[in-house]
Fold:
Amino acid sequence: MVKFNVPVFTPKSLEYVADVFASKHVSGDGKYTKLCNEKLKQKLGCKEAMLVHSGTAALEMAAILADLKAGDEVIMPSFTFCSTANAFVLQGAVPVFVDIRPDTLNLDEQKIEAAITPKTKAIVPVHYAGVACEMDTIRQIAEKHRLLVIEDAAQAYDAFYKGKPLGTLGDIGCFSFHETKNIMAGEGGLFVTNNPQFAERAEIIREKGTNRSKFFRGQVDKYTWVDKGSSYLPSEIVAAYLYSVLDISDDIQNKRRRIWQRYNDAFAEAEKQGKIRRPIIPAECSNNAHMFYLLFNDLANRTEFIAYLKENDVAAPFHYIPLHSAPAGKQFCRTPYDMSVTDKVSETLVRLPLYYDLTADEQNKVIELSLNFLERK
Structure:
């Protein structure tokens, strides 16, 4: 069976986890959390990077920092995971969905301004498949209307826009280290900002709304509840696992890019024949090889393709059901405009297996079966 995803495991993983138990400090903000924070801060070139228990936690922290009131609006794509919207719904805000671009499948920057109202407080670009949104335009719109930019960079580790790391181009960046991501820890996430005021308050929000971190640094003689917050710290076990994966992050990325390129080359002819479409990477964007997908011409062909691969022991799932069509999306969110690109992509996209330990034989099987299917069409 060729699985869709297999988590990364390194020889150092057990060694670092054993070190956590030997240290007698298993809860958050210990040695490995600090090591991860520093390593990731250097990687991203940002002023503050804080490890959290999930990408969802990073988004929830961002939503608290946005100081949203009931009825405030936040613009985002519908073609994303529910956490992107949920974080703001929890603060009483209304996600406003805007359609995506047909090339990158990212938030269509040309449609953002029409969705802005006096209630709009933030724009949330989601860098789908690790390919950057058109951030220059998005930032210009945000500056013009005095809006926050909160990057959902869950899939965008080691991805760049015009040479700058994604997650550092807005006011706040939110990463995920879920086991399906390039760099993973089973669970885990990262909150990133270059704004010192956001950084100071984020530290409090992350520690259940207390100034506990200042207490441990000796900046206050006792700590207390001072703000909104929740328990957003990961355990040291998660941090140690993540640190072991960060140790080999260059190897992981190089391997993923080779796998991605093999897929891309293999399906070039089928795209010329109009049977599928491959991912599009604009010149100003890098490719972090988070995902390789194919876009079919219609739902029927995609459904048949997924079933064919499954019959031959290959897992190849589709992706998001658009949030604007979900029960909670209809209840808590607003969809003022046409979402035809989102709907079409949702019905025609399929993801192929792509992970660090994918063997050449396994990839050959995926490619051979896929081409056999496409040749019959």
The two ends are 25 Å apart (CA to CA). The mean pLDDT is 97.
